Amino acid sequence: MNILILGSGGREHAFAWKLAQSPLCDTLFVAPGNAGTAQVATNLPISYNDFPAVAKAIRDKEINLLIVGPEEPLVKGIVDFLREQPDLAGLGIVGPDAQGAQLEGSKDFSKQFMLRHGIPTATSQTFTVDTLQEGLDYLEKHALPVVIKADGLAAGKGVIIAETVAEAQAAMHDMLDGQKFGAAGSKVVVEQFLRGIELSVFVLTDGVNYKILPEAKDYKRIGEEDTGPNTGGMGAVSPVVFASKAFLQKVEDKVVKPTLAGLQKEGIHYQGFIFVGLMKVNGEPYVIEYNARMGDPETEVVLPRIQSDFAELMQATAKGELDQLTVLVSPQTAVTTMLVSGGYPGDYVTGKIISDLERLEDVTAFHAGTLEKNGHVLTNGGRVLAITAQANSLENAVRKSQEAARIVQFDGKQYRKDIGLDLIRYSD
């Protein structure tokens, strides 16, 4: 197969790294890619939101299989656009259409979907600028802390956990009246705060059949012991020590099966990944959010543990043949530590030379925000590299990932030194 991956982050480098290992993969392209994907594939200088340019590349490179990495082109309808091209009828696509991508594209849609299909989630109410006063009044009586979410895509910045009524009201005002997130904040979801421990479960579905991939836990905040502002993710661990077989069976029975049945009932043909963000509360799973794609940096710990041929899995997803395959998973633990630019998640400078990558041993450096220029690998984003280690214990995987994180150098490098330590200490 000739395969094209859309995206430029660590998730897409992990996809490319895994697909390049398959004998089914003839040629591999990534658009636009980064310095890491260039090591295992051919980068194409195309924006993944430029749908006509993507379609042209598919024709020019005789692509058989397309894998859409990020959420934005999915929500904007790239799958619908490509399906409307008569000459691309034979193209296999891993990624939902715009209707299916609403699971991530609209928090209100996903909450209503969960309610319709009896999927456990936090109680919530949705407000618009027309019902702003009603929303402010509602917050006066709401238990604290309270979660305020912009309805649409806000690059991971649209969720605020407010500790006071004033903070919650200000957040609602900023989103609805101040248009802080533009159209993404035209609706605001006010949600009950759940106390528990968070994890992510990943489902691969061909529209009818499904496979549950290894679970993971990521670390969102910039500072150690989960302090400071939220980021796109500072690290991840898989498997998750508190996700017992019994708990994961509850997730499958109470969340995964009703979600897929609900999509089918509503006539949504969903082919691709469903990321289920969960909170374990008193031993029970509650859905915090859906994403219509794999998580990042969770992909960088999930894919290394998958022993099956990933190209074969992707092909079966696109063809509706997932029931014919088995997903083999390594019992090893994977830990990734994200190296980020100084100042991230606020303002940061790019173009810093990255050195000592060649000194890394027995780990994989997935490139998240990098660029190759004049023989140097440069920083080209807030999140720069995800350093993934695998080992026969969580302690050893943490140690290997952290040691490698210390070796790689670039000006302003930051990383969390406590990724996975809470799970080493964890007791139910």
Strand content: 25-35%
CATH class of the domain at 2-98 equals Alpha Beta
Q: Overall pLDDT, averaged? A: 96
Q: How far apart, in Å, are the first and last alpha carbons?
A: 46 Å
Range of helix content: 25-40%
- Structure class: alpha+beta
* Continuous helix count: 13
Q: What is the CATH architecture term of the domain at 2-98?
A: 3-Layer(aba) Sandwich
Strand adjacency order, main sheet: 16-15-10-11-14-17-21-18
CATH topology category name of the domain at 2-98: Rossmann fold
Shape: globular
Number of strands: 21
Low-confidence stretches: none
- Gyration radius, rounded: 21 Å
The profile of the biggest β sheet is:
8 strands, antiparallel
Give structural notes:
It is a single chain. This protein has helices spanning 10-19, 51-60, 71-76, 78-83, 98-105, 107-116, 132-140, 165-176, 245-265, 299-302, 310-319, 394-407, 421-425; strands at residues 2-7, 27-32, 42-43, 65-68, 92-94, 124-128, 146-150, 159-162, 187-192, 197-205, 210-218, 221-223, 227-230, 235-238, 272-281, 284-291, 333-340, 364-367, 370-373, 376-379, 383-391. Among the domains are: 2-98, Rossmann fold (3-Layer(aba) Sandwich), CATH 3.40.50; 123-192, Dna Ligase, domain 1, CATH 3.30.1490.20. It has 13 helices and 21 strands. The model has no long low-confidence stretch (mean pLDDT 96). The strands form 5 sheets. The protein has an 8-stranded antiparallel beta sheet, with helices on both faces. With 428 residues, it is of the alpha+beta class. The radius of gyration is 21 Å and the shape is globular. Helix 7 (132-140) runs antiparallel to helix 8. Helices cover 29% and strands 27% of the residues.
